[in-house]
Amino acid sequence: MANILIVGADQGIGYYLVERLLESGNKAAVLDIQINAVEILKEKYQEAVLPIIADARNLSSIENGVRRAIEHFGDIDIAIHNACLCTFESEHDTGYEIYQNVMDVNYFGALRLAKTVLPHMRKAQKGRIIFTSSGVGITGFSNISPYASSKGAIESLAKCLQLENAEYGITFHLFHPPLTNTKSASGISVPKEFKAEAKKVGYGLADHIWSKKFVICHSAFQAAQMKFSYRHPLFIGNMMTKAAKNAIEPEKK
């Protein structure tokens, strides 16, 4: 069983990830800007779950959360950055400040967590850090360039930090969920029936959390899709953009 710290898990995939991890006997510290749902989990799992108000955009907030988690559990075996900000406008309608805000949460949030946790893991000579990525960070998608850019950036960050920390017994990984029916994805121009269930995805990721693969998916089918996406990114990006456009055209008529 493991001590796990996750940033961004009071709803959606992150919440179900935590729920499943707790069911499996793990312990979890959850850092989020709101912790109402996690507080309910605490009623059932007591000391096994530690809800902490924290903001991925604020370094001192993350440092405080990591410190409290270590004091409570003794150490951290797995740290996960799952906090997410996504916008749904074209580049033409998106100002620089939006790109900066999205990067602050998605990319720099991941970096803040990694730089805070890594000294402890290096000392322990073990640990794994997981960033939640997205297929659009590989393939691209229309009207989502701030989000897609931030996910592409954490793909490279994870690879670099994996190479730099391998000698300490620390591994980096990427969660790659499919398009999922969550609040953060509600603005994507794709009908709900094309989106996966958050519970199924969260539970699947939890069940594969110790996978040795760099890219971790909730199912074999999603893993196969990601392999194809990495090999043919622009083809998949173009296909998904056209499919999404075709899917919403009937709704506009």
Task: Describe this entry's structure for a reader.
The protein has 253 residues and is of the alpha/beta class. The chain has ten helices and seven strands. A seven-stranded parallel sheet has the order 3-2-1-4-5-6-7, sandwiched between helices. The protein is globular and about 50 Å long.
Notable traits:
10 helices; alpha/beta; 13% strand; 253 residues; seven-stranded parallel β-sheet; single chain
Sketch the major β-sheet: 7 strands, parallel
Question: What integer is the average pLDDT?
Answer: 92
Class by alpha and beta content: alpha/beta
Give the fraction of residues assigned to helices.
Answer: 40-55%
**Order of adjacent strands in the largest pleated sheet:** 3-2-1-4-5-6-7
Tell me the strand percentage band: 5-15%
Care to give the gist of this entry?
This protein has 10 helices and 7 strands. It is of the alpha/beta class and 253 residues long.
Task: Please describe the topology of this protein.
Layout: E1 3-7, H1 12-23, E2 27-32, H2 36-45, E3 49-53, H3 59-73, E4 78-81, H4 96-106, H5 108-124, E5 127-132, H6 136-139, H7 145-165, E6 170-175, H8 198-207, E7 215-216, H9 220-231, H10 233-252
Parallel strand pairs: 1-2, 1-4, 2-3, 4-5, 5-6, 6-7
